[in-house]
Amino acid sequence: MNRLQFYFKAQTAHGLHSPSIYSLYCEVLNPYLKGQLSYSQLKEAMANHYSDCTIMEIQSYVDLAKIPQNTILLFEKPHSQEKIWNGLNSNPAVIQTVDLFDLGLLFLKPICPKQHFYLRKMA
User: Which helix (H) or strand (E) holds 7?
Assistant: First the structure.
């Protein structure tokens, strides 16, 4: 998927029906997308927002069976590795995904329904 296709598929907070993702978007992701947070600040904000979860960065395919529940994986540039990204999305251990085009978030939180969100910055 190229950036233009992503833009038309993605939504802002107005289209979100998940309270947890809406909160994450408004408090953490949108400021990051607007350039108000650096990547390291994003990781810190994610750790504060999800204090009960472990935040991990991955660069390529990882064995999700070895990763504990209540983990959030950060995957940089998922669209440059679409095959790996799509494989991770379809894994049953991954409950929710958030696609920011340049960054993918994979949630291994078993209490949530399986969902995939494409999000872009809100003006």
Answer: helix 3-9
